[in-house]
Amino acid sequence: MEMPKPTDADKQRFRDFAPDGPTVEVKPMFGNLGAFVNGNMFMGLFGSSIGVKLADTDRDELLAIEGAGQFGPAERPMGGYVSLPGKWSGTQAAPWIDKALAHMAAMPPKAKKPTQKT
């Protein structure tokens, strides 16, 4: 499985789409980017594709929109995530990103892994 590399423009678009807020953290993930709330990823970048993690009903609704689809590697898409249509503006994507943020903010916070001492 080959990981696609996002361009600098892809990374900037992702950062532009990611909501600002004290609980949101954008960080690198396997050469791509992820946006997290309380340690839970609600939005990811895979190559040029931006995906969001949604509740089942919202996921089904987004998948019915032309241009939306599975998120992640074709041979192993990420469960629960949907790729936003690539031609969408930040304004078009914002309601879905907000739904993903709210969905994942309601999940229990992920415990931070202890750092290993060498």
* Percent helix range: 25-40%
Q: Give the number of DSSP strands.
A: 6
Spatial strand order of the main sheet: 1-2-3-4-6-5
Order of helices and strands: HEEEEHEEH
Which structural class best describes the helix and strand composition?
A: alpha+beta
Proportion of residues in β-strands: 15-25%
Give the CA-CA distance, first to last residue: 31 Å
Helix tally equals 3
Largest sheet: 6 strands, antiparallel
Q: Which residue ranges are poorly predicted, with pLDDT under 50 across at least 5 consecutive positions?
A: none
The 3D shape can be described as globular
Radius of gyration using CA atoms only: 14 Å
Average of per-residue pLDDT values: 92
Assembly state of the chains shown: single chain
Summarize the structure.
By secondary structure, the chain is an alpha+beta fold.
Structure notes:
Strand 1 (24-29) and strand 2 (32-37) form a beta hairpin. A six-stranded antiparallel β-sheet has the order 1-2-3-4-6-5. The mean pLDDT is 92. The protein contains three helices and six strands. The protein is of the alpha+beta class. It is globular and about 50 Å long.
Key structural traits:
six-stranded antiparallel beta sheet; alpha+beta; 6 strands; 118 residues
Give the SSE map:
Elements: H1 8-17, E1 24-29, E2 32-37, E3 40-46, E4 49-53, H2 56-63, E5 69-70, E6 81-83, H3 90-105
Antiparallel strand pairs: 1-2, 2-3, 3-4, 4-6, 5-6
